[in-house]
Amino acid sequence: MQDASPATYRTPSRAADTLRLSERLSARTLLLGSVMVVILWLFIGPEQDPDFWWHLRIGEWMVQNGHLPSTDIFTFTAANHVWTDHEYLTEILMWLTFNSLGLTALVILFGLLTWAGFWLIYLQVRRQPFVVVGVGLAIGAIAGTPIWGPRAQMITFALSCLELYWLRGYLSGRSLAIMYFPLVMVAWANLHGGWVIGFVWLGVALISELLTWAWDQDNPAHKMRARRLAVIGLASAVAVAATPHFLSLYPYPFQTQGSEAQQRLIVEWASPNFHNIELRPFEAMIFLLIVGFALKRPSVFDLLLALLAIGLALQNVRNIALFVAATTPVLINTYGAWWQELAGAHGWKPTVPPRPLFAAITAAVLLLIIGATSVRVGTSINPTRQDQLTASNYPVGAADWLAAHPEVGTRMFNQYGFGGYLAYRFYPEPNRRVFIFGEAALMGDDLLNEYADVYYVRSNWRQVLDKYRVDYVVENVGDPLPNLLSTQPDWRLVYQDKVAVIYVRQGPP
User: Fold this and answer.
1) Which carries the bigger pLDDT value, residue 327 or residue 265?
2) How many CA atoms are closer than 13 Å to the CA of 415, on its beta-carbon side?
3) pTM for this one?
């Protein structure tokens, strides 16, 4: 008998490969793949965060000087304030990336970090019906739109998603990966001050296990898991000290959360204003959670997690990112379980076109979506568009004027959101140090309140300017202070564009 030709073996192999490819290019692949590609457009966008610029400058300063700042270096008002730079490592990495690869690469990296958080959310719910998973992921991504961007907070979002993924695996008995969480906390504590939320998620899991054990004491697994979570929490608390700040890092998050001035003056620390159309998807997501709980009773863990996340987000706008991380899996699990019960009771089963045809359609649609999203993202982060947005959001023209007139002014009063950009442009020039910038905890409540007195032209506005010997002002066009200064004979307008104005005091302060 002759040996079979090579073609005899290749034909079944090709058929098997085709079958495997057809199975992968399914309706599930089409929907979930499309969602995961399209949401990248929400995450990768131009830089518009006022704090971005001072993060870059302090990152550069640390690289050049080889140590962390001990006190404020950007202002003349808070120069003696102790600086606990809780995100020093992120700032160093931001500067190194910006310096070597440019702003576009840095924006893309932050977008991919946010996307990685959503991939971890997907891993938590991948066993649910894929239509529910796809819609839920899209809702979560849209709800967080006001928060996404190239900012250090995305590190806390992504690490929260990782921790919650591990916690779900642990509580379900599928994984012990949460045992590695103290190592994650070492990195988290060096990257961003949001590390404290890691203990909040651990606390929710611990309380849910204790409550479940109290309800079902015949099952010792809950008590064992609660004990292990407590040990992990203690180990993680010790891990926080593994930073250059050592013990001084522990009180930092509580000082920030306890600042009344920050809550009143800084938009992202205020409660959500639902008259803002950008916050409507977040509002809708809250209602969807409530309806979901009416349709299907959640687990104790999911209920506590959702209640806490809603409370956090209603307290501060910036916590919407944490709300999305915590409640998107809850939303998907709730509706997924309800749908499975409903479909099972009625014998519903989806139908799709013949597999080879659908696979071809899926491949074509995914390629089209990838191409369209790539074009959209490319347009969004185009350097020319970024320059236009920078010029419309920050006092670029005013800074150029000040650079061309170095003899003008000795002490500046600046709008809060301008401080980071002006510090980036002018540090370490002594007569261009800012009055205030976006590290509110470093500024302190006293200075924040004095800033507010001037910004809102309260009765003591002039006394504050005199106290700090301010002789020039860089402010938003149309703000209360410039409008008032235009009526004061001892202040003269020297520069104005669509974004900013500069007033200079005539005579000594």
Assistant:
1) 327
2) 22
3) 0.90
